[in-house]
């Protein structure tokens, strides 16, 4: 469901709503984000700032050129001839971008996690619990019909962002898409509870590197290993459904929608070039 369209990942990868300002001030923006979960001391803030500065320099030099090249490829796509195989190739490329970033970030997060005090860990877990509770209150009482309506609304919003106003044919595809998805809200609530237990156990081992490191690496590099079988089956089903309908949506793009799509990607390319 979250992978509604292959191009959405560009937004995450470029971190960008205000181009250079966001990128050049990523250290304090990231600290502000972290402190929504746990208040850092001065030494920790300095550590994070230094790490982010080094990371952003690496990202600017090594990764942004990869994104620009990929954006050019996406701009040149023939949407009406786009296939499931094309989608899978694009997903693989996006996953490669993500994997490289995680590979680079993981050691820095590992170091920061080891520096948290017991009170900071408690604060972190409490804030995560509060956020999970909000999700639970919002979703657990929804009927299946309401959940599917939410799915349809999110798909429509995302398609509108990338293709512009949807056609009648596309509205029907969105309706069918949302009806075929497996509702996962309750599964995610259970998963969130499980992950809080796992994370709390992980942080309790943070000073024992031999025990902490492998569990930390599993969390960073293989998060799907924590999925319950039922959730994993539903996610796999939803991915196949999404891919099927996504290709149909792309193939049905009008000339005006194709132009809108390419303009969106050109905007992202301009952001990437500006950052570079």
Task: Please give the structural blueprint.
Blueprint: H1 9-13, H2 19-24, H3 26-34, H4 42-75, H5 84-115, H6 118-139, H7 144-163, H8 168-180, H9 185-204, H10 209-221, H11 229-251, H12 255-275
Helix pairs in contact: 3-4, 4-5, 4-12, 5-10, 6-9, 7-8, 8-11
From the structure above, extract its key features.
mainly alpha, disordered N terminus, 12 helices, 276 residues
Helix content: over 70%
Helical segment count: 12
Distance between the termini: 32 Å
Q: Unreliable runs, pLDDT <50, ≥5 residues?
A: 1-18
List the domain count as a whole number: 1
Mean pLDDT: 89
**Shape, per Cα inertia axes:** globular
Please state the structural category: mainly alpha
Counting DSSP E segments of at least 2 residues, the number of strands comes to: 0
Strand content: under 5%
Computed CA radius of gyration, to the nearest angstrom = 21 Å
Give the helices and strands as they follow along the chain: HHHHHHHHHHHH
Biggest sheet architecture:
none
